[in-house]
Amino acid sequence: MVAAPSDFRLLQIIVLLIVSPSFTVEFTAAKLKRTMGERKANIQKAGSRAKTAAAAKKTVLATSKKPTSSRQKKDEDLPPPPPPAETSSSSADSDGSSEEEQMLTNKSTSHKRNKTIDNNKESSSSGDDNDDESSEDEDSSDEEDYETKPTKGKFFSDENAAWLKPKENKQPKKKQSLIESDDEDDDDEFGGGDNNDVLMENDEDEEDEDEEELEVERQSRLLDARHRQEAEEAEEELRETVATHTAMYILPTREELERDVDRVVPPSELKSHIESILEVLADFNQRREPGRSRKEYVDQLGLFIAELYGYLPELIEYFLTMFSPSEALEFVEYSDKPRPMVIRTNTLKTRRKDLALALIKRGVSLDPLASWSKVGLKISESPVPIGATPEYLSGHYMLQSAASMCPVLALAPQPKERVLDMSAAPGGKTSYLAQLMRNTGVIFANDLRPDRQKATVANMHRLGVKNVVTCTHDGRKLSRLFSNYKFDRVLLDAPCSGLGVISRDPSCKVQRTIADVKKTAHLQKELLLAAIDVLNHKSKTGGIMVYSTCSVSVFENEEVVDYALKKRDIKIIETELDFGTPGFTRYQQQRFHPSMAKTRRFYPHVHNMDGFFVARIQKLSDKIKGEDDTTKQSKEEGEMEKTEPEKDTTKVTSKGKGKKRKERSKQPLDVAEPKKAKKEKVSVPPTSKAETKKKVEKNTKSAKMTKPRRRKVDA
Ligand SMILES: C[S@@+](CC[C@H](N)C(=O)[O-])C[C@H]1O[C@@H](n2cnc3c(N)ncnc32)[C@H](O)[C@@H]1O
To answer: What residues form the membrane-spanning segments (predicted)?
Structure first.
């Protein structure tokens, strides 16, 4: 189609209007002004940064003791910051626009330019999409590429590439705009401004880094100095320690000990002696005094420990035969400390959870005892007396130490069994047995001392135990009394010296002699044989007994069980307690049956429990080993029968016997002597009040008088 001339003219006019120079100029000028405005703002910012950086640099250089760094050197080599904003307008002249266009642009956009600058300021302050931010973002995004890409900035070489960051990715953006494409030359200049901007920032960063480094260095120097001082002090201390600890410990001579007779030796001095001797014993060959034996040192150690902790020296001497010197000291130390208070939930009346909640409501702080106990609660704090709460009075729990639960767990009685608790008062273990048997079967709770059995009866009532019969016999005679009524299980929680529970009864320290301990062991042997004899080895569920004591002495534990092994047809079986230390299989010159390792010992210093011993024994037959022993035993039994006709004293209260029993109850020891015990040749501690008093006095006297350090030591 061919257009008419008039139409063509009209088209020409339209085209002219569209491409009119004034239109183009105005459009171009507006764009240019805006761009220039933006750059001017950038340059102003760059200038102020340069000032700040220069000031910071001055400060740094002034404070730095270090020579100018290579980076600083590079900074100095860099060209100065770009000229002020006027330069940018003059550079605009060189973009090829005509003078007329420039004037038009200047006139028409002078207001716009100012506005653009203001807008830039605003957007800069608002932090949205401003050049600075975008340049920072870009910087960071470029950072990684930097080492690999060639640098495009004209102010630095490749050498600077590692630390300078050009605004590479700004250019493509600018090239997108028509005006910016015209400003390629400007880019060189103003791009320099941008680059300067970056350089300034880098300068700032570096100065900051330098400042940080210097602070770090300062701190490091201080730290080094402190370390040096500490090292010197430690070395000095070590020298002193070595001097002290490698020094020979000279035992006090007899004269020195005698001179010290009336001197009250301060505990610190005793402790120091103890420590020194322990150190010598740990390195005996090197540190002993020439000519002195190990025994002499151990003896002297025992005397110091006895004096420091208030024991009869012979007891400490005994502990030193059982434990290493350092462990003996530990045992003695821990024996003085009270054990945690523990209660056992009476599951015949309540559940542990309910009990715990009830006590917590009363302000009691408690925790489950241990993983091995489903019923124990450890009391850490209580605003109310634990032995007098409504829960206690209602029989929801029993005060019972952790260790004393172990013999019952080891016996593991079953419901409906026939069980004998040979020395039961005050019934802590009896009630636990009843609980495990769910109040079924029958338990004979025997104890020689009727006064103590009153407490057993009261406890059974309080705890709601209904399967217990109490009686007051000498345990040694029970085998005869129950010859036709044997038991599925027997618990012999034997009367003992109490050397495992010293914290409860510190009088043991001065009232127990080794002779007492040996006498008690004798009684224990007799009670154990009697316990085995009343045990029904044919029991379908049991034929098992437990022998336990709250003593740590070998006399009362391994020796007793070993004796029974030789006299009866029994074997030691596992206690099924997964804690505790194995019993001794050897002690000094003695060798016990290897199965003694199946017995368990509990220690204050190891288990934070009372000192306890538990042996689980299975009866194999009624056989009595060694004819002589059998004859001797039946003779003994006959003699006992003659001298002490036993009556059934299952009823605990009896007015007629009350007086005599009262006398017995005054005995300080758990071990009660049966009537006419002397004739029975049973070695038990003295019974009469006078004798007891005399003995206590003697022991106390000997404890006070026996100043260990005064004891004669062979020079
Ligand atoms: C360690 S206590 C028993 C504690 C008890 N099993 C408990 O858990 O509550 C030892 C008991 O043995 C008693 N006893 C002493 N000699 C005895 C004997 N020849 N026959 C029976 N019991 C005796 C004492 O009266 C004492 O109550």
So the answer is: none
